[in-house]
Design brief:
Shape: globular
CATH class of the largest domain: Alpha Beta
Helix content: 25-40%
Radius of gyration: 33 Å
Bound molecules: iron/sulfur cluster
Strand order of the largest sheet: 5-4-23-22-21-6-7-18
Number of strands: 23
Number of helices: 29
Length: 706
């Protein structure tokens, strides 16, 4: 059917009649005037009498100025964002497409591939800046102020109730000035140092019910009961780690209160960040001796096989997930191992469901398959891994060269990589010794040092045997030794496909398929979720995931490796070096007795001396006590060693962290643990629950205001 324009307009007019009937307040002439016969108007919008209203729409995006800033929460992505300002107010945020233009101090630039960055949180951060719950001035808990005004009397149970230490959160927060807040806090520290120092202090702590080992750990200094947490300080060392500098300066207070000299003075206890948040992958130091393996996320695009093991690269890495998407676009294969089918599984080539906490068994089963079927790079395994090292089967310890070779003298070079670059000391070398392999060329044991890796091993003319059991004369007796490879064969005998399926519930065909993919695709990266670092078998799971990568040489190359992605470490640090001085340690632990007050002093002139001792906040979150158990057979056992022994927490200072919200067992902490703390000071940009339950809250600027 063909319809002329005139017919169409006529039909519209008829339709409008119905509308007019249904709704008498509308006259068709009001809105169809441009269509009326004879009007001769082709485009009604062009004839609209006034278009001023469109300015409202256009003006929404008008701005007076724009500036870049770095978003710096604990996700550590450190995105550069643009803030658009109008009438002195940030009205919106936007993308900065200049990643390729600016450089670090050495002139290194990123590529345009980094554009754009930031997530919705960066785009809306001005709403945090201007939010009604923004902390804009210091606040002090009314009951705490009354306690301070009463001269900080020693807190008995009655006084704790009187001054509402047991009802923080229900008390009133009053506004105070900065100067007033600082004076109250300083006086509080002094009073508490006096309450808990010396024999009298120890007696009080003991009477309050703290474990005797904790009381001893104070070393008689009340300042050791002060805890400082510079929250995620590497995101802004000067600001956030200032808390640790203050903790170090508590040595001055101790010197004054106890009348000791600087050699005896004790600073505060510094609370950790990394381990408390569970960022540490516990098994990784077992494998390579380093704290954690992390590479920048842009490395993802080089992978040809990405295995997400309890990891969600789709949703959890916000701005950086585009590197993962890019790798998909380049044709990489994606495998997801999780108990549940979620967002990452939807992107996977195949998804291996398994029972929680059984990942280690899965990777051990895969390793067995790869070893049995010869799916490994023998050359890499011999040159770069410890699989060929000989192990004594009588002690299950690695055979040391000095045990086997009388008068053994190590040829570890003083200018080799271990000593020159890795800081391996003579004392450590003395303790650890050198190792022994079975050389296939000479059919005899040969000593190797830490430097005999890769080409250096080849240059020595050693061809280590992978599989073997030998008998050696050690210390006048026959001792059986085996290669680590052979011991793994024994260990992995328990991880046949049926057993792995029974433990993990993972489909057998997918286990085999992953083993084959790991063996044939290169480079491979396994990404393990931070979450599973926190739970059972985490150490074994971290270690087992490395095995297939060690077999195939997927270590130390772009797109390869095993990473946990607890952080990206994109924030800039000023590290220590022989030519710069102590680096940020000079800031957090500058000797308070010998401060360098010259504003032009070279970093090397700063004298660092830590008077503090580190402490794991998990003990505070464990009822402020170490791990003490009553056993039927041995009675009371304190299982926390001296190196990790916490002290009673009497003053707590934290910044840039919602500490109480992070802690487990909120009710227990707020009702039973924190009431025993006499001063809680928090520094925050907004009114968090931790500030609500603090004695003093100090406002901070946010990262867009720096
Ligand atoms: S990912 Fe989002 S929240 Fe994280 S730094 Fe970038 S913009 Fe900020």
């Amino acid at each position: 059917m063909s319809l002329s324009r005139r017919d169409f307009l006529s039909a519209c007019a008829t339709g409008a009649s119905f509308a007019t009937l249904a709704s008498p307040s509308f006259d068709r002439k009001d809105w169809l005037w441009a269509f009326l016969p004879g009007a001769g108007i082709e485009n009604p919008l062009a004839h609209y009498p006034t278009r001023d209203w469109e300015r409202i729409h256009r003006d929404q995006y008008r701005y007076d100025s724009v500036f870049p800033w770095v978003c710096s929460p604990n996700d550590t992505h450190a995105c550069r964002v643009l803030a658009y300002v109008r009438n002195g107010v940030i009205v919106r945020m936007g993308s900065d497409y200049r990643y390729q233009d600016y450089a670090d101090l050495y002139g290194n630039k990123a590529t345009a591939k980094w554009n754009p960055r930031q997530c919705a949180k960066g785009f809306t951060f001005h709403r945090v800046v201007y939010a009604p719950y923004r902390l804009k001035h210091p606040v002090m808990r009314k009951g705490w102020k009354e306690w301070a005004d009463a001269g900080f009397p020693y807190l008995t149970d009655d006084l704790r109730s009187k001054y509402k230490f047991d009802a923080r959160g229900q008390d009133v927060q009053v506004r105070v000035g900065w100067d007033e807040a600082f004076r109250y806090i300083a006086r509080g520290y002094e009073a508490l140092a006096r309450h808990y120092s010396g024999d009298e202090g120890k007696k009080r702590l003991t009477a309050e019910g703290y474990e005797p080992e904790m009381v001893e750990a104070t070393e008689g200094a009340g300042t050791r009961c002060f805890k400082f947490r510079g929250g995620m300080g590497l995101l802004g060392v000067l600001g956030k780690y200032g808390a640790y500098r203050l903790g170090n300066s508590m040595a001055l207070l101790d010197a004054k209160v106890r009348g000791v000299d600087e050699k005896e003075a004790k600073g505060a206890r510094n609370w950790s960040n990394y381990t408390w948040h569970g960022d540490q992958a516990p098994g990784q130091p077992f494998v390579h001796g380093l704290q954690t393996s992390e590479c920048d996320f842009n490395d993802l695009r080089f992978s040809k096989l990405i295995v997400m093991d309890g990891k969600n690269l789709v949703e959890n890495k916000m701005t950086d997930s585009h590197w993962f998407i890019e790798c998909m676009e380049r044709g990489a294969k994606i495998v997801v191992i999780t108990p549940e089918y979620g967002a990452p599984a939807s992107k996977a080539d195949y998804f291996i469901p398994l029972r929680p906490s059984t990942d280690a068994a899965l990777f051990l089963g895969i390793t067995r398959l790869m070893m049995e079927r010869g799916w490994y790079d023998a050359d890499f395994v011999k040159r770069f891994t410890d699989f060929p090292l000989l192990v004594r089967t009588d002690t299950l310890e690695r055979l040391r060269a000095h045990e086997l070779f009388p008068g053994y003298r190590s040829d570890l070079a003083p200018d080799g990589p271990s000593k020159r670059w890795q800081g391996f000391t003579d004392e450590e070398h003395e303790k650890l010794g050198d190792f022994v392999v079975w050389d296939a060329k000479t059919n005899a044991p040969r000593a190797i040092t830490r430097d005999d890796v890769g080409e250096r091993l080849v240059a020595k003319g050693i061809d280590p045997t992978l599989e073997g059991k030998f008998e050696l004369e050690i210390g006048g007796k026959k001792v059986e030794v085996q290669t680590l490879w052979s011991l793994y064969q024994t260990h992995l005998a328990d991880y046949d496909l049926d057993t792995v399926h029974e433990i993990t519930h993972a489909p057998k065909d997918l286990v085999e398929r992953l083993a084959q993919d790991l063996a044939t695709i290169e480079p491979v990266a396994i990404h393990q979720g931070e979450g599973i670092n926190h739970w059972f078998h985490a150490t074994e799971m971290n270690r087992a995931a490395y095995l297939p990568l060690l077999l195939t040489g997927n270590i130390g190359k772009p797109g390869a490796g095993c990473h946990t992605w607890a952080g990206n470490y994109k924030a800039a640090l000023f590290q220590g070096s022989p030519w710069t001085g102590p680096g940020f340690k000079g800031w957090v632990a500058e000797d308070p007795f010998h401060l360098d007050l010259d504003p032009h002093a070279h970093g090397k002139d700063v004298h660092a001396h830590a008077f503090t001792k580190d402490e794991e906040p998990a003990y505070w979150n464990h009822g402020d006590r170490p791990l003490v158990v009553d056993t039927p057979k041995f009675g009371r056992l304190c299982l926390t060693g001296q190196t990790h022994m916490p002290t009673p927490t009497k003053a707590l200072f934290f910044n840039n962290v919602n500490l109480f919200n992070n802690a487990k067992h909120a009710y227990e902490m707020l009702k039973n643990v924190n009431p025993r703390i006499a001063m809680i000071v928090g520094v925050e940009i907004q009114m968090t629950s931790s500030i609500e339950y603090a004695d003093v809250g100090l406002p901070a600027n946010s990262w867009v205001e720096l």
